[in-house]
Amino acid sequence: MSAQPHVVIIGGGFGGLSAAQALKRAPVDITLIDRRNFHLFQPLLYQVATGSLSPGEIAAPLRGVLSKQKNARVLLGDVVDVNPETNSILLADGAIVKYDFLIVAAGAQSSYYGHEEWRQWAPYPKSIEEATEIRHKILYAFEVAERISDPVSRASWLTFVIVGGGATGVELAGAIGEIARQTLRNDFRSIHPEEARIILMDGAPRVLMPFPEELARNATEALERLGVQVRTGVMVKEIDREGVTFAQGTTTSRLDARTVIWAGGVAAPPLGRALATSAGADTDKSGRIKVGPDLTLPRFRNIFVIGDLALSLDRSGKPLPGLAQVAMQGGVYAAKSIVKRIKMGRELPPFEYFDKGNLAVIGRAAAVANAFGFKLSGLPAWLVWAFIHLMYIVQFQSRVLVFIQWALQDLTFSRGARMITGTTTTDFNFNNEIAAQRSQPNAEITQPAGTAYR
Amino acid sequence: MSAQPHVVIIGGGFGGLSAAQALKRAPVDITLIDRRNFHLFQPLLYQVATGSLSPGEIAAPLRGVLSKQKNARVLLGDVVDVNPETNSILLADGAIVKYDFLIVAAGAQSSYYGHEEWRQWAPYPKSIEEATEIRHKILYAFEVAERISDPVSRASWLTFVIVGGGATGVELAGAIGEIARQTLRNDFRSIHPEEARIILMDGAPRVLMPFPEELARNATEALERLGVQVRTGVMVKEIDREGVTFAQGTTTSRLDARTVIWAGGVAAPPLGRALATSAGADTDKSGRIKVGPDLTLPRFRNIFVIGDLALSLDRSGKPLPGLAQVAMQGGVYAAKSIVKRIKMGRELPPFEYFDKGNLAVIGRAAAVANAFGFKLSGLPAWLVWAFIHLMYIVQFQSRVLVFIQWALQDLTFSRGARMITGTTTTDFNFNNEIAAQRSQPNAEITQPAGTAYR
Which residues of A touch B59 (CB under 8 A)? Predict the structure, then answer.
């Protein structure tokens, strides 16, 4: 048996992986546990959802990332509970792992604010599977519209609603605008994809609330140039198979839309609740666990909670946002703190988040950025965005493919990852949809007149 | 309505797409119908199954490929029947499409020779979904082996059987050999992936029967260098959840293997049977439809059958093999034949297949090729293989990504597309598997001793 302290890290996202890597030369044995065998570059998931990138291009196998780090081991496993009294965790398969230090970086999952039934009609791009499902929904919508002739139902298939005006929602709406206006422009013979309606809804008075107002205005203008309608101050009342019901002020309206994408809030995963209960820790209403200034639990100083699962307050008492940067800095802090305690028995000064800024991209080579105190829009913001994202990706997997793919797409306007594969969880059946939309059974599909063959 | 003859093409594989493209300047309207929205570069599917390439890298959206061809339209639809008397086809959604000329290029599907129940334990890399499932099976096997300690069951998780010694089987076995010996070499802490047993079985006296004997010998040696055992003259009797039972001569043996991959035969899809019945055409035992020397049905000269679905004889009376080259040349022939009949009312001379040779690749930069009368092995064969495959890919989607990815992998020995996503159709449950394999409930996973942290 090794005599070194055992650091167990739950989660191979930005926080967990940063912690593991920061412990590379530390006198500890590390076990990183994740349910998935890969690290996912979540900020680019929306590009998988919109067919720009393949899943493989934004994921790095955890074993590959850590294969050369001799003090680290990766376990594929689903942590279901933590017992802080015995310093052990329980996996879903029944195994127990003991730790000396525990870093919980279990992230967040999508939240439908108590309306779980909306999930089946409005997926959230939070996992590879959900992003792929959204890609299928978008592509299928155009395919169904091409096959049916009733103008009303065709319009509802060509209406795309994105609920949530944060960075994910803005980026998704911009990408769908590009798909309709550029990527698919010449691909159909019966419909004009550029007639698609794309509506971005949010309950707040404007999009991109964490950004300065000027940048949110620039983003709205960039979206409108791509044909996206931005509706703010809107409360979604109902999402079903055929559309969205929403209130704006005192009016309630209905919008027929066969493709609705959720980019709303997030909440803590079940492990968060289990840990809060067993460790007697406080949580906020979305389930985040309150940590002290050193990111540990008040009653168990050898348990760190970092990233999206942590409710960590900055000096002004405001909670830190759920961003990759926050998680990564938290991971490095936890690692340093463990080393200092092992080597010197001393504490680090409290964690301080260094805010490098905020970024959102709106379609091809346009973005808004609030970086290092500068407000940027358009191409300069896009370049900053591309550079920062590539730096992070390269760090984990030294892949130049993503950049080459973007460059090719910008040259050719095409999107490579446009396949509809597998089955969607919304039990979509193309043949039934087409059959249901047709006015008469066994109608003949005639050739469009010469002009339709553009 | 357009007055031009209407050519309907069923299938967007090598044959159907070649036919559509060869009709680019012809005075016809083309409708290409496929169940999927993409063309799939099937010869590289095994690289998806073994984590070298992402699905998006070997697929091209059909609409994208044909978007600039003004006389062509793409329909997403599942053709279930053909009525040659009324010159019409029926889609699964109930729609009818009429044609003047029909080109049936519906391809082949995997066949388990009457043992459909083997499919659940031994997937065949014939579709994106199946290739992805195989990737998951291979990666999960190593993950389970890492988690369990019983040496007998660990060995069965580290045993990989490939049934079928054709090009697909040889290429799969070589790639799994590389994964075990190179890609995963440093990735685990409890197991040594290079101890995996990889067994390639075939009923024939040697692998790669369509190749000259000398090349098959070279291939076998290249496989053995990668740690693959080649067993020929073997008849598979049973495949189940835990392994394979097979006969060799008069002995019946059992091999415990949790990963079995089928690379056996193919058979015609259901549409083949429907067409043969309604058109009164002959078929062989795998369901291929017998066509005349001009690739049309004897009783319906406006129906061409090309590619894997066609039983087409060469001058010596031997059936043409199910290769991309045969399908593509058949597609071009059908297109030219239609043009000649429309413009001049005359017939082309009979179809003749020009055999450019055969290729199979065995791991990194090794291959065997029988090209243009030359027998090649090793690096020269690999270069020919890479060049030919890239030419075809570029033709359809002008992507340089595949080549770059290969180059990176050859430099780094890594495989980018190594994620386990979604659920496999074999209802694999990692947690249950681990729990079932463990000798005692809630056993503790201890840290391996220092030496295990390589």
Answer: 419
